[in-house]
Design a protein that fits this description.
By secondary structure, this protein is α/β, with parallel strands linked by helices. The chain is built from four helices and four strands. The strands form two sheets. The chain has a two-stranded parallel ribbon with strand order 1-2. The mean pLDDT is about 80.
Length: about 100
């Protein structure tokens, strides 16, 4: 399903695979749309500690496009399909206060 949502030339990076077996997909959807699929491992414990230190020291924060309640997951999926987001789409089970000037 994720591959069908990709824009031509998109990239999927898979990390970790402890959640169970992989799901099958149609390879033609990958090469006909020039999609890159790559895998990555996390890192050593030392590298992870160094990364966290860098994030904290440099105050690196992710760009969040929108925070949606879980029952609005389809709104988030629509934003991805339309490529109208800039940053992360976050789903939460906590109440979400309305954002000023939010255009959903």
């Amino acid at each position: 399903a994720y591959i069908k949502m990709m824009k031509p030339g998109g990239r999927i990076v898979s990390y970790g695979s402890t959640a169970g077996p992989s799901k099958p997909f149609v390879m033609a959807n990958v090469f006909l749309n020039n999609i890159d699929i790559m895998g990555t491992v996390m890192c050593s414990p030392r590298e992870f500690t160094d990364m966290l230190q860098l994030v904290n020291e440099q105050k690196i924060v992710p760009i969040i496009d929108v925070i949606l309640p879980l029952d609005k997951v389809n709104t988030g999926i629509d934003r991805m399909r339309q490529a109208s987001q800039f940053g992360k789409i976050v789903l939460t089970t906590s109440p979400v206060p309305p954002k000023k000037n939010a255009k959903l």
